[in-house]
Amino acid sequence: MQSKDDKITDITAYEIIEYFSLPFYVIEGERIILCNQKALKVFGYEKKEELLGLTPYSLSPANQPDGSSSVVKGREMINKAKESGYYSFRWVHQRKGGRKFLAEVELFA
């Protein structure tokens, strides 16, 4: 059974994610397992179920502006974050309807 403090911590973590002022999602393995409403909006989705289970690469065009594969480069960025605990970079994402946009991504590991 959870203690009162554990319940407060769980609620607070959920609220921080849900009400964070920027698009935010959590990746486990290579899949999105949690996201907030801002993430849904920026990527053009209406329901969390549409976004959950996708990979960050499926929210990106096949290639980044430098010609590199989004999958290959994305994995490199994730590995850099894992090595140092944090990594920030610019990334071209793609909305559900196909429209591309430039984003400043911050990865925490």
Automatic annotation (TrEMBL):
The chain's coiled-coil residues are: none
Q: Which SUPFAM superfamilies match?
A: PYP-like sensor domain (PAS domain) (SSF55785)
Domain of life, source organism: Bacteria
Which InterPro entries does the entry link to? PAS, PAS-like_dom_sf
Residues covered by the PAS domain: 28-108
Pfam families associated with the record:
PAS_9
Q: What is this protein called?
A: PAS domain S-box protein
